[in-house]
Amino acid sequence: MALPLKDFRLGISESIDLWLESVAQANAADKAAIAREVLQEWADRKEHEHKVASRLKRSNGGQTELPWSEAEDAGNVRKSRK
């Protein structure tokens, strides 16, 4: 069963559009499928990089959390201190 998709829209350059269209036609697919594949490959690389960085930090006795893992960095508004 396929996971549900999220709607995500963005502007792309003519060059990116050309490549997406070329790859889509060469593989009898649509541009959205090619873009999802590219983004999934990117996300997989990022996950691997995070795992490698975490192992390196642990081996050096450091914390494995990344700076943006804090709640305030996840889009929540930080309350100012008075």
Notes on the protein architecture:
It is a single chain. The chain has a domain at 26-60. It has two helices and no strands. It has helices at residues 14-26, 31-59. With 82 residues, it is mostly helical.
Count every helix, treating DSSP H or I runs of 4 or more residues as helices: 2
Shape, principal axes of CA atoms: elongated
| Percentage of residues in helical conformation | 40-55%
What is the averaged pLDDT score? Answer: 84
What does the radius of gyration come to? 19 Å
- What is the rounded distance between the termini? 51 Å
Summarize the structure.
This protein has 82 residues and is an all-alpha fold. Helices cover 51% and strands 0% of the residues.
Reconstruct the topology from this structure:
Blueprint: H1 14-26, H2 31-59
Which descriptors would you attach to this protein?
0% strand; elongated; mainly alpha; 2 helices; 51% helix; 82 residues
